[in-house]
Amino acid sequence: MANATGWVAAVVGASGFALVGSGVLSGHVAADIVGAASTLSLLVGSVPLQRSVTAGRLPHWGFRLVRIGLGCAVLMHVLAMVGPRLPPYAAVVAATAGLPLMIATHLAYIGTSLIGVALLRSRWWHPIAWLLTTATPVILVGVPASLAIGDPGWSALVAWLVTEGQLALGWIGLAIRPPVRTAGGSQCRRSGHWPCS
Known about the structure:
Shape: globular
Order of helices and strands: HHHHHHHH
Strand content: under 5%
Oligomer: single chain
Distance between the termini: 21 Å
Radius of gyration: 18 Å
């Protein structure tokens, strides 16, 4: 299992990430403070978690994309906090920079899917691996589906479930039950919690 610091950082970060995305926090400032802190926590927690995933280019790029996406999310929250307090011209620049940052945050979903694919290729067929793998397909299908729902409340719930909700669940699962690497590089162990297939 990843060390305790990484476990706590990932679980707390992913939980805060999902909380902010749910929209239950009142006030933009509070949401941005919690969002920046929790996303940074998840970013830090991803470092030791990478050691529990099979080596290779695919997971390497997966974790790299996740960190780029999370880093952009942190910057986006910071800009949202300081932007209104800047001079008018600087506030416009901050608001303009927020759009590409928001788009780049979705690299975290692509990276998560790559990590899931890497785990499946290493014969770790646990549901967590499938949940990570489907991060990108779910958001590509789920977001348009949420927009098609007439009721605003249900639309917001579905949008959250297919974005921050499912991404956070996958990372919490990976932190709590990471795969175990054997000497041969397999993600499976015969005497562990998950039987080899």
